[in-house]
Amino acid sequence: MNMRQKLRHLNWTLILGAVLVGFMILIALIGPALAPQDPMKENFAQFVDGAIRTPPYPAFRVPGYPLGTDRWGRDLWSRMLWGVRPTLIMVTAVAGFRLVVGIMLGLLIGWADGRKARRLDSFLSSLLSIPVLIVAMIGIYAIGVDKGLWAFIFGLGITGWAETARMVSEQTRIVKRQTFIEAARALGAGERLILFNHILRQIMSLVWALLAFEISSTLLVAAELGFLEIYIGGGVWIEVFDFQAVNVAGLPELGQMLATALVKISDPSAMLIIGSFIFLGVLGFNLLGEGLRIELTQKEFGRRAGLLPQQINEWLEAHVIVPLRYWLELNGRKVRVAVLLFVIITGGWIYYQRNTYLFTETETVLQTPGNHLWGTELHDSYGTSYVPFSMDTSPELKWQAQIPGGASGGPVVYADGTLVIAGQENILMAFTPQGDMLWQVPLDATPIGTPALDAQGRVYVADVEGHVTAFDAQGNQLWNVEASGTRQATSGPIISSDGMIYLTLIDAVAAISSDGVLVWRKTAADVFVDSPPGLSADESLVYLKDVALDAATGQIQEIQIIPEAQTLFTEPVFFTGADGRDYYRNGHVVMHWQIIEAGLQVDPALTWEATSFVLFNPLYQGMTPNKLTWLYYTTEYSDGRMIWLDEQSRLVGNFEFSTTNSRLMAVGEKGEAYLCAPTGRRIQCVMAVPGVAEPIWDISIDNGSRLMGGALVPGTLYVSAADGMLYALSATSGDAQP
């Protein structure tokens, strides 16, 4: 036979199928490493043909995005490279389940005789007449699409095994009439032995072809489900307004990408690209299955073409399966114990990987000056809101006090538990941890925000006239300085470790020395800002929103984390984490950055699929010492939502606080959030823990006025309200101790 004849008689169906399947498997293995972009990075503004456009961006028109983007500006090519792996894992798991169930039931149906066989055949025919897609949808929704892979295994496996069972049952009926089966019966072999030692062995050569067909069928149904917006990690509709909802679409998966590909009916290019990729996968597995079937059944040139798979099966039977069966019979108990240990160890490892942040032990790097329990509005001058303890027990109202005119902000708390708070009737008051008033002194003007404490115990208060006043720990006034004659203060002050005082003046930042001298004042923002500035981790910079100023001179520093075009409508901010590192948030994306000898270094972004849950950017953000990123969303018009992400950008917590105008009081040592909000005629406070849908505790106070601030110290949560009440919520029966 010459070369042309050899090539003509090659099984090209099998070869082409193997090439396509091999390509899919290769992409699943190394695709994420080849992705040029972060598949979760959103880009809502980009230059296209000389003008700024919003996504989706067309293919081959934007540098760095060869196939264009989806509706959120995420690189389509990178998402496809990332999406093949979870898709193949899902369809292979489902196909494996369907194959095993189909073979087992096919053996039993094919072995049955008489009336029982006819009933089972009728039942199997009935299952085959039901569309798999409809059954899969019902099954997935019955389990819950949020259950992930298990819901899809159940939904796609309810009737998906029927075709395999039909083929296996037909082969079983053929084999059971063979002479060697009758001989086995005559020698006294039982039905179980015949089924699994003789009949199953004869049909095992079909398994490879059946598996390929099952994967192809599962991939096709998964694509159909994806087109109907039912996919792993999604398919959940979230109501954002009355009669308006959006669909969850997060980590890349081919079904999910197909569901969200069509943005405009006039431009189906993204859907065609993703659909073509899925088509290649379906075609590849179909060709592979058909090629294996040809190898098993076709005879050419006087020889059986299926010798290669049959030889493999015979070798496995002689050298692997039979010796393994005998060994298992002798060591069955040891094997069961080993399997149990493997399951326990694997489960523990998976749990550890999913909750790594819980096991990372680090110490808090940043402290308040003087180690006070609560030194300024956001706990410390870095604005971390982090405290190195938790209040696991539900608190009770311990005491309450009236603040004349209402509090201007929250309290600050000394290391010994003494707290100081400012009232809007131009007054500054100090209380013991038991609620007894120590002293009160008048102020020259209406205070703004929360006071601040320095390392020597001095108290600093800002007022509406743009002044800062200093008091000692006994309430004696030390000095008063004008930070601005044209701008009023819009936040309370913060104090650096060397005693420098910083505060916000509408759109500017002022720096005042510890002895009351104005050092510098600099306009830094182009919007009204009512939050205090924050210090960088090394205190060399002062942050006001997305502007970084030199702490010593007030000069604005040119630190461009991302192109300015990508910051439209994202309300970017610089902030410092409780781990002692500097971060930048742009929209829902958080990045660690630092300046090294080579220049600016920005680490990979951490983000989550926010567009399906929230309509606004976070109001608060931070990082715990064990690298747990948190974002808190709240407005006067939307419910609160606390989000936690681990170092691998995995969503480890999504807590909805179903009330508007809420406030984050603090973040504890386990990453838990302490949240409060006015709800009608009451103030509700809860403790939310990552990964838990319901609050650990929930307490309400008979007061529905607006929140002004709060502080969390060991054993006690302080809450101040606009109507003048200061509440101490204690988790202990005795006094709160620092």
Notable features of this structure?
four-stranded antiparallel sheet, 738 residues, alpha+beta, single chain, disordered C terminus, 15 helices
Describe this structure in words.
- The chain has 738 residues and is α+β, with helices and mostly antiparallel strands.
- Helices cover 33% and strands 25% of the residues.
- A 4-stranded antiparallel beta sheet has the order 7-38-37-36, with no helix packed on it.
- β9 and β10 form a beta hairpin.
- α5 packs antiparallel against α6.
- The longest helix has 36 residues.
- It is elongated and about 110 Å long.
- The C terminus is likely disordered.
Outline of the structure:
The protein is an alpha+beta fold and 738 residues long.
Which SSEs are present, and which pair or pack?
Elements: H1 3-8, H2 12-34, E1 46-48, E2 51-53, H3 76-111, H4 114-129, H5 132-143, H6 149-157, H7 162-176, H8 179-186, H9 191-203, H10 207-227, E3 237-241, E4 244-247, H11 254-259, H12 269-297, E5 299-300, E6 303-304, H13 307-330, H14 332-354, H15 356-359, E7 396-402, E8 412-413, E9 419-423, E10 427-431, E11 437-442, E12 447-453, E13 459-463, E14 467-471, E15 477-482, E16 494-495, E17 501-505, E18 508-512, E19 518-523, E20 534-535, E21 541-544, E22 547-550, E23 556-557, E24 573-576, E25 582-586, E26 589-596, E27 599-602, E28 620-623, E29 629-633, E30 639-645, E31 651-660, E32 663-667, E33 673-679, E34 682-688, E35 697-701, E36 707-713, E37 716-721, E38 725-730
Antiparallel strand pairs: 1-2, 3-4, 5-6, 7-38, 8-9, 9-10, 10-11, 12-13, 13-14, 14-15, 16-17, 17-18, 18-19, 20-21, 21-22, 22-23, 24-25, 25-26, 26-27, 28-29, 29-30, 30-31, 32-33, 33-34, 34-35, 36-37, 37-38
